[in-house]
Design brief:
Strand order of the largest sheet: 2-3-16-11-13
Order of helices and strands: EEHEEEEEHEEEEEEEEE
Shape: globular
Largest sheet: 5 strands, antiparallel
Number of strands: 16
Mean pLDDT: 78
Structural class: mainly beta
Strand content: 35-45%
Helix content: under 10%
Radius of gyration: 19 Å
Distance between the termini: 37 Å
């Protein structure tokens, strides 16, 4: 099966290309289970955010229900500084309301156009209560053969240090290269971070099969 990889039109050309998921070398299993574990772990590809190698982004759910996105950049001397931040959403409504570029360091190499592209790769869903969702688009999308879909899941082999998994979703990529988006749900006061080398999720390509209900009358 051949799957075509295309660059996301949001900040095009920026971001780690998808790589085959591999089983970490330090994972040990009984010899009789190793083939099955290896086969399961190498299913699909790891997907990354549209970030440059010297960039990192942190997403924090504030007490008022808004998300704060901050992008940091590391210079040639190894010094890291926040170059811009954005507040999206809030307890007053759905995510995306009240979007404001709160700060941008004049020394930043990222352009205003790239900021707009990067912000457009994020989405939020803020609802009453203590939890909310935010989504981040991958740097690349996929086009699968007819009757094959793209399943977005948490990385099997690269567990996040913060323990926040992404939500599973299925994308019909055989007819349109829809954006590969990974969504996360967490509570107020929690944050999640990504770098150029941090997988935001894993994609697995699955066939779309007809479903037949057995023993259940269908009207």
């Amino acid at each position: 099966m051949q799957v075509k990889i295309v660059s996301n039109y949001r900040r095009p050309g920026v971001g780690h290309r998808p790589v085959r998921a591999r089983l970490p070398a330090d994972v040990r299993a009984r010899a009789e289970l190793q083939p099955e574990l290896q086969s399961a772990s190498e299913s699909g590809f790891l997907v990354y955010a549209p970030l440059q190698p010297n960039e990192a982004i942190e997403v924090l759910l504030l007490d008022d229900g808004a998300f704060r996105f901050s992008l940091s950049s590391t210079d040639q001397e190894g010094e890291s500084a926040e170059v811009f931040s954005v507040v999206m959403g809030g307890s007053s409504g759905w995510g995306g309301l009240g979007r404001v570029v709160a700060a941008r360091d004049e020394r930043a190499t990222i352009t205003r156009q790239e900021i707009d592209q990067l912000v457009s790769a994020m989405s939020t869903n803020v609802m009453p209560g203590t939890a909310a969702q935010f989504g981040f688009l991958g740097a690349h999308n996929f086009i699968t053969p007819p009757e094959w879909n793209t399943l977005c899941v948490s990385p099997f082999n690269v567990p996040r240090d913060d323990g926040i998994p992404c939500l599973n979703c299925l994308i019909e990529t055989d007819w349109y290269p829809q954006n590969t988006e990974f969504r996360f749900a967490f509570k107020k006061g929690k944050s999640i971070c990504f770098t150029h080398d941090t997988p935001i999720g894993q994609v697995v390509f699955v066939p779309r099969e007809p479903v037949t209900l057995v023993g259940v009358p269908v009207e």
